Amino acid sequence: MILLFGPPGCGKGTQAARIARRFDIPAISTGEMLRAACSAGEQQGEACALVAGGGLVDDDLVNVMVERRIARPDCRNGFLLDGFPRTLPQAEFLQDLIERRDLVGPTVIHLDVPAEALIARLASRRQCPRCGQIYSQPGTCDTDGTDLAPRADDRPTVAERRLRAYREMTGPLIEYYRGDGYHRIDGDRPPEAVFQQIESLLEARLVRVHVARSR
Ligand code: AMP
Q1: Mean pLDDT of 137-151
Q2: Which of 30, 65, 121 to mutate to test the pocket of ligand 1 (most atoms within 8 A of CB)?
């Protein structure tokens, strides 16, 4: 289990997709699941208003979503969580789930990017409205040619609120996870360099976990 941590705009989505391809595991983004549920009308009311406005939705709602998702067969050989846990109660829920399901403890990757760089990144970030792929600048989608659009919650006022939610609610989780399995990565570098570092640490970690489990 890989947990990808970092503030909005730090490159989590890009790295999550690459890690998923390289290690053949699903990348599960609670933000994407919530946005999809809201646009399909499966989720309504307060939760969708919070997603659109940059606040955090109720812990119980996200916890249930994650528990159901990781019970699916494609998660049997591991999975990556992008954007979960985001609060201490979510981290405690995940710990309980790990114990109940006898899962391997998480490898935590913290993508650290200074606040000034994040605002600029969020302002130029674009998303393909059709396939959801994130790009660092305006243009058209490489996959389906659709014109890229800003993500609604990247607008400056909402982005500020998301950054604040990260600082206040998610930042303290770094302390919760610090120790074995926690890795801080400098995310303020080209995506390729960031990925190479993540790839080598995950390869080394996989070998260690495999050896430990086969003893
Ligand atoms: P993201 O795509 O990860 O930036 O998430 C988009 C939005 O979804 C966030 O601003 C929150 O409103 C909501 N969200 C995603 N994950 C969580 C979570 N673990 N806990 C609470 N709210 C979440």
Answers
A1: 94
A2: 30
Cα angle 60-92-212, degrees, rounded to a multiple of 5 = 130
- The Cα–Cα gap between 56 and 87 comes to 9
CA-nearest residue for atom 8, ligand 1, is: 31
Model pLDDT for residues 166-182, shown as the tens digit of each residue: 989 888 899 999 888 99
Strand partners, 140: 147
Per-residue pLDDT tens digits for 12-70: 999 999 999 999 999 999 999 999 999 898 988 899 999 988 899 999 999 999 999 99
Q: Give the residue carrying structure tokens 């990144």.
A: 121
Q: What is the C-alpha separation between 166 and 6, in angstroms, rounded?
A: 8
Q: Which two tokens stand for residue 81?
A: 């969580």
Helix or strand (DSSP H, E) at 29: strand 27-29
Q: Taking the CA of residue 13 as centre, how many other CA atoms within 13 Å lie in the half-sphere pointing to its CB?
A: 14
Torsion of CA 96, 99, 105, 106, to 10 degrees: -30
**CA–CA separation, 198 and 34 (whole Å):** 27
- Rounded Cα–Cα distance for residues 113 and 186 (Å): 7
What is d(CA 91, CA 76) in angstroms, rounded to the nearest whole number? 20
| Mean pLDDT, the chain, whole residue set | 91
Q: Could you tell which of 57, 64, 153 is best to mutate to test the pocket of ligand 1, judged by most ligand atoms within 8 Å of the CB?
A: 57
